[in-house]
Design brief:
Length: 550
Amino acid sequence: APWLALAALLNAAHWCEAAQWRLRKAFQATRMARRHEALLFARGAAAKAGRAGAGAAAGTEEAARLVEAMKVVHKTAYWGQMSLGTPPQPFKVIFDTGSGNLIVPASDCDLPGCAPHKKYNAKSSSTSGAVTNEAGEGSSEITFGTGQVSGDFYKDRLCIGDSLCFDANFIAADKMTTEPFEAIPFDGIMGLGFKDLSMGKGFNIVDDLAVNIPGGHSQFSFFVSDGDDSEVTFGGYRADRLASDILWAPVKVESWWQVAIDDITFNNHPKNLCDGQCQVAVDTGTSMLAGPSELVDKLSSMVNAKDDCSNFDQLPNLGFQIGDTVLNLRPDDYMDKSASGCSFSLMALDVPPPKGPVFIFGDPFLRRFVTIYDRQKPAVGFAVAKHDGDETSASELIARVGGEKVERSAPKADEANPFAVNLHLDAGLMGGAAAGGDDDSSSSSDSNSNSKSGSGSGSGSSTGRTAGDDGAQVEAAADGAHQPTDAETFDASKPAAAAAAPPSEPGATAKDDDASIAAMRNMFKDDSSLLQKAQLQRNRLVSIRLVRDE
């Protein structure tokens, strides 16, 4: 009958439509978000160590000596514990204001880069679910300056402490290259930058925190030290950690926590280095201070710190002017000093427009000042950190332009949020021993920048990042950075981008590198700066996360 034929046609049409929908959903689920983060876990360099009157051999030995000395001067990584899933699966993560995604290893990753770390098992969580972003992407592949990760998008219950829990989207990495991930002392990364750094809508932890922090406070803060008392506070700040009142600076670009400074000062006197205004990103994932190469060269020459520490007591307070107020770092804040020598903790880093040029306030600044991040304003607050045994006057560290010292009283305890969650941070070196906690379980994000080595040797390896001259890597970043294509194969057993120095074999130790360093000495014997770059690249992982390729 005709109606039977019509019914058959309608059923066939419905089946075809359903099949097309299933195919479309399957296609969307397999779409992959690709990112190239050129300087995260990049290899760094310091081109000018031992430069003053030093010959090639002397410069080489000085550079190597400073790198080794600095490894024990300051902590270069801070991480804390959170959990995912029901029941909770614990992870150690760095809380990184310079990136925007939560990344943890997945249970199906059997590669060396994942082996030392806790892994997320979606099947073991009753609240786990696969998700896609608004572009239909259900997974991501991220290429760093050294190394790669790739993984799928999930949503699950995230808990920080006992009282701060909410559903969050994140990346469970099923592939992580041996270098650098096998050696890092934490499992994953919790990006605390703005949403343009994240994988899409619903993937930004800062926005999640703003609606889930107890008491309705959209703030979090960091107090870090070289001891065992570092912590991050969600929901405000601890008034007893502050030795002064808070100086607020509005965020100029909602990507990193980027604020403006009016000038750089020596002993509270402006040096007219900013030509009106400089931009600064406050980054908890960076082990050093960094800035535009031209300004870093000028600062290095003006500070004129001697590698043998002979003029250490004559070095000025290095300040950053915001309005009529100066935030000061003392020489022991911006210099790494040990029995082996001294080095300036400021690296050269050229960030292309529109976000650059920009300074990076890393660990040396964060150890001196408590930093408070307010999503609602948005703004960054600075207050002198109250460290046990530190007799430095707060009025020396926060002063008026020209040198007038202003007594700045600390906030009262009742000004803080009583519902804030305080989380202890372990401290250690990127591949070394931890302070304030064990280091048995232990596993940063977007970028496109042109970087070159600065005037000081870099700090050990950082939680993050420090800038360096990465040869071909930097050229690629300056050109807009390479985006991997579908045809390219992810090789998780090898580092992603080759640096200027001969690459280390996966899992290589310092002893294993002796022959390589000897070969580099011979190869670059006529150019000490090139040798220093190559040698430092062998000895220090760095990771400055900058602009994401759009």
